[in-house]
Amino acid sequence: MRRSIVLRFAGLSATLGVAAISLLQGAPALAQGSDGAASGAAGAPMVGAPVPWGLDLQQAGGPIKESIHDFNQLVLWIIVAITIFVGALLAYVIWRFRAEANPVPSRTSHHTMLEVAWTVVPVLILLVIAIPSFRLIYYQDRAQEADLTINVTGRQWYWHYAYPDQGNFAFDSYPVQEADLKPGQLRNLEVDEPLVVPVGKNIRILTTGQDVIHSFFVPSLGVQKYTIPGRTLETWMRADRTGTFYGQCNQICGTNHWLMPIVVKAVPQAEFDAWVEGARQRFAAEGGGQPAAMAKAADEGAVLAELRR
C-alpha cells in the first residue's frame, strides 16, 4: 500500500514537472513580440532560422507567424491549466481516499452531474480552441489585396520561382553544398538564388509541383503549402522586417528531401526594384525565363486561384 502511494505521488510530481517545463517554454514566446519589435525598430536585419537547442517557435517575422504565436500561447495556457487541475485533483484523491482514511471504500459507480460535467467541459474547451484555430486557417489561406504574385514550383530537389507581375522572369534555386559554404552561411539551409521580396508587402504565393509532392515551408514567416503536381494552391506571406528567413521542404519527396532548403530575403522596396531590374536581364541572359507554355500555365493558375477566392 505504501509503495502504491509513493508511486502515485511520483506520477503527480512528474505531472507538475511537465507543467513547470511548459511554463518555462512559454515564457520566451511571450517576450518574442517585444524583442522582435525592438530589433525591427533598431533596423537590424532579422535572421529567421533554427538555433541550437531551441525549444520554442521561431521568432515571428510577419503577421501570420505572430498569429500562430498567439494561438500557440492560447493552447499552451489551456494545457497548463488542465495539467494543474488534474494534478491537484489527483493529489486530493490520493490523500482523501487513502486506505487509512477509508478502510471501507465506497461502491458508488455513477454520478449524473459529474458525468455530464466531464463531457460538457471538454467540449467547451475544444470549442475555445477550435474557433481561433479555424480563423487562423482561413487567415493563412488567401491573400487579401496582394501586392505581387510569386509562382513557386517544387522540383526534385530544388525550387523554381517566377515573378509574373515583374516581367514574368523565372529562375531556379539550388542548395549550396557543404563544401561550397562561405563563412557565416548555414549548413543545409543556404541556396544560390534566394527568393527576394519587398518588406511590408502582401505576397501571394501560388504553388504547384513538377514531379512529386513537395512543401513550401518557411517557419518564421508562418507559411506552409504543399506543391502538388497538376494543382495550383494559394497562400500568402508578408515580411514586416528586413532580413533573411530560412525554410525547408517538410514533405518527404525522395532521396534528397533532406537538402531542399528555402531562403526568403526581405529587402526595402527600392532595393527590391533594383534587384528586379537586374534579375530580368541576368536570368534572361542565362536562359532562366519561363517558356511561353509555362508562363501561360502560371497565368491560368493565377486566374483559377483568384476565382476560388
TrEMBL record:
GO molecular function, one term: copper ion binding
Cofactor note text: Binds a copper A center.
Keyword Transport belongs to the record: yes
GO cellular component terms, semicolon-separated: plasma membrane
Superkingdom assignment: Bacteria
Membrane-spanning parts: 74-95, 116-138
Domain spans labelled Cytochrome oxidase subunit II transmembrane region profile: 49-144
Signal peptide (UniProt feature, chain positions): 1-31
Membrane topology of the entry: Multi-pass membrane protein
Main localization (coarse): membrane
Cell location: Cell membrane; Membrane
One Pfam family named in its UniProt record: COX2
Cofactor(s) for this UniProt protein: Cu cation
GO biological process terms held by the UniProt record: ATP synthesis coupled electron transport
Limits of the Cytochrome oxidase subunit II copper A binding domain: 145-278
UniProt keyword list: Copper, Electron transport, Membrane, Metal-binding, Respiratory chain, Signal, Translocase, Transmembrane, Transmembrane helix, Transport
EC assignment: 7.1.1.9
Reaction(s) catalysed (UniProt annotation): 4 Fe(II)-[cytochrome c] + O2 + 8 H(+)(in) = 4 Fe(III)-[cytochrome c] + 2 H2O + 4 H(+)(out)
CDD domains: CcO_II_C
Family the UniProt entry places it in: Belongs to the cytochrome c oxidase subunit 2 family.
Function (record text): Subunits I and II form the functional core of the enzyme complex. Electrons originating in cytochrome c are transferred via heme a and Cu(A) to the binuclear center formed by heme a3 and Cu(B).
Record protein name field: Cytochrome c oxidase subunit 2
Organism (species): Teichococcus rhizosphaerae
